[in-house]
Specification:
heterotetramer, A: 147 residues, alpha+beta, Aldehyde Oxidoreductase, domain 3, eight-stranded mixed sheet, 31% helix, elongated, B: 77 residues, Ubiquitin-like (UB roll), globular
Chain lengths: 147, 77, 147, 77
C-alpha cells in the first residue's frame, strides 16, 4: 500500500456484508498475503431503562477524524509489518444488527495481524472524534459512551 | 477578531448549533470556557475536550486564531 | 449457539468472499452482538528454490479433525464469553490468493473476540490433523509445515 | 486379528496407499513401528505421530484394536 495520504474513512450509513466481501476479494491478487484479520463493530440493541436501542446515529469532526485515522495507519505500519490496512466507519444512521466499523489488516504471517488489529481498534475507540447518538424505539435518545 | 467554534454531539444539543462565531476574542482556552459557561450554563456539567486546529489543547493554551472545536467523549466503533 | 455437536467444518475447495459475506449477514439478526472478529488464512505464492507455489492441496483425517474442531469450540466457549463461533477449512485444491481457513467469533463486547480468535486459530494450527501439499508451477510439490 | 492402518499426507506417498491391513497383530505401538519401518524404510526418516481411535498415543501404548493412523506434522490453515 503506497497510498499514505489521509483518505476518507467514512461511509454513509451501514457497512454491508457485500462491501466487506468486495474488499476481501480485492486481496486475492496479493499473493504474498497469508493472513487477514477483520474487526466488525455491530450496533447492539441494548436495553436501557426498559427501552431498546434501535439505531445509532453517527456524527464526526470529519477533518480531524480523517487525520487521526491517518495517524493511526502510519503508527500501525510503523509498529507492525503489514501488507495492507483498511478502515471504514459509518456516518449517519446504522440500525441495530448492522455494521458501523470495518477494520481489515493483512500480512504474510498471522501473528502480526492479531496484534495490529487490536491496536488499531483500540486507537480508533480512544482517539477518533466520532460521536454516537443512540436512538430508542420511542425516538428518545442518549449519547453513546465507549467502554 | 471573532472566534469560530464548532460543537459536536451532545454539546451541539446544548448550544443548539453546530458552529458559531463569538464576537469576543478570548486570549486563552480558559477565558473562552468562561465565556461559554456564561452563555451555556449546562456546558459546565459536561465532560469535553477542546481542540484548536484539530489538536487537543489544555486550559492554559493561548488562542491565536485557528479552528476551535468542543468535543464530548469519543464513541466511535 | 446451542448446536454443540461435532459438525463438518470442511468445505470443498476455496472459501469465497461471498460465502463470508453470507455468514456475516446471518449475524445481523443477532442484535446482542457488538463485535465480530474474523481470521482468514490465504494461500501464499511463496517462492522456494526459484519455484513458486501455485496452490495447496489439503487433505485431512476428517473424523479426527472434526472432533478436534469440536473440542476446540467447546474449550473456547468455556474460556470466553462468545455469542457464536464458526470455523470452515478447505479440502482439496486452493489456489494462491484464495482463502483456505475462515474463523469467525462474535461477542457483545470487543475485548473477548480478539483473545478468543487468536486462541482458536493457534489451536487449529497445532492440533487439527490437516495436511497441505504445496504444488509448484511445474507440478512438483512439497509438504507444508506450519510455523 | 489383522491391523488396519491409515496413512496421511507425506506418509501416504511413502507407503503408496492411504489405508492398509497388516496380517500381523503387533501388541504395542513400538512393535507396529518396527514392522512398518521394515516394510517402508523411508518412514524411519520422517517425523510423525500415531493415533489410535483418533487419540494420539506413545510408543509403549498397547494395541487392542481400534483405528490406527500415522499422522505427519499438521499443516492446516
Amino acid at each position: 500500500m503506497k497510498d499514505r495520504k489521509p483518505k476518507n474513512v467514512f461511509v454513509e450509513g451501514a457497512i454491508s456484508p457485500e462491501f466487506i466481501a468486495t474488499s476481501i476479494a480485492k486481496h486475492q491478487s496479493k499473493t504474498s498475503i497469508g493472513a487477514h484479520d477483520i474487526f466488525l463493530g455491530q450496533v447492539r440493541a441494548d436495553m436501557v431503562d426498559n427501552k431498546t436501542i434501535k439505531a445509532i446515529e453517527y456524527t464526526a469532526y470529519e477533518e480531524m477524524a480523517n487525520n487521526k485515522f491517518h495517524e493511526i495507519r502510519e503508527a500501525t505500519f510503523g509498529k507492525y509489518e503489514l501488507s495492507c490496512m483498511h478502515i471504514y466507519h459509518s456516518l449517519g444512521t446504522v440500525n441495530a444488527g448492522e455494521i458501523c466499523l470495518f477494520v481489515f489488516v493483512s500480512s504474510p504471517r498471522r501473528k502480526v495481524v492479531f496484534e495490529a488489529l487490536e491496536y488499531v481498534v483500540e486507537e480508533i475507540k480512544a482517539n477518533v472524534p466520532v460521536f454516537g447518538r443512540e436512538i430508542f424505539e420511542d425516538e428518545s435518545h442518549q449519547w453513546k459512551v465507549n467502554t | 477578531m471573532s472566534t469560530n467554534i464548532k460543537y459536536f454531539g451532545l454539546l451541539a444539543e446544548i448550544t443548539s448549533c453546530r458552529e458559531e462565531s463569538l464576537g469576543n476574542s478570548p486570549s486563552t482556552v480558559n477565558e473562552l470556557l468562561e465565556l461559554l459557561f456564561e452563555k451555556y450554563p449546562d456546558l459546565k456539567e459536561k465532560d469535553f475536550r477542546v481542540a484548536i486546529d484539530q489538536q487537543l489543547v489544555t486550559e492554559d493554551t493561548q488562542i491565536t486564531g485557528g479552528e476551535i472545536a468542543l468535543l464530548p467523549p469519543f464513541s466511535g466503533g
